Amino acid sequence: MSDIRNLRSEISALAAEAERAACVLSSKRSELARLEAACGHEWGPVSTRMKEIREECVDWSAPPERHGVHIDYKTTFRTVQVPEHTRTCVRCGRMEGTTETKAETRRIPAFRD
Ligand SMILES: [Zn+2]
């Protein structure tokens, strides 16, 4: 019986400790977000590496399942490699990553041949 009481007491103490730690964690995350927002980031070089992601593909050859007005198409997953770009702020160490890219348009002189 004392084992059960000890265990309950231990669980209770750990739960209180976890609650305090969650409160401190939340406070520290807010402080970090505030400091990062005030940094004015100076980004270092972009590094790119390949990352595996799972991509869902609709199988158009399979008959769809109908649930009333809702139609479910059969899907499969495949693993594809996509480039992931990361950059790190040289001042505060914040790291950002993305797999998205955007087109860059440049204007160049249009000499007549
Ligand atoms: Zn920064």
Provide the fold topology.
Elements (H helix, E strand, L loop, with lengths): L1 H38 L7 E12 L6 E3 L2 E3 L2 E14 L6 E4 L15
Antiparallel strand pairs: 1-4, 2-3, 4-5
This protein binds zinc ion (ZN).
**Order of secondary-structure elements:** HEEEEE
Please state the overall shape, judged from the principal axes of the Cα atoms: flat
Counting helices, strands and paired strands, the structural category is alpha+beta
Ions and ligands:
zinc ion
Percentage of residues in strands: 25-35%
* Strand order across the largest sheet: 1-4-5
Average per-residue pLDDT, rounded, comes to: 95
**Largest beta-sheet characterization:** 3 strands, antiparallel
**Roughly how many Å apart are the termini?**
96 Å
**Please, how many helices?**
1
Which regions have little confidence, pLDDT < 50, spanning 5+ residues? Answer: none
Please give the number of β-strands: 5
Tally of distinct domains: 2
- Indicate the radius of gyration in whole angstroms: 26 Å
| Quaternary status | single chain
Helix content: 25-40%
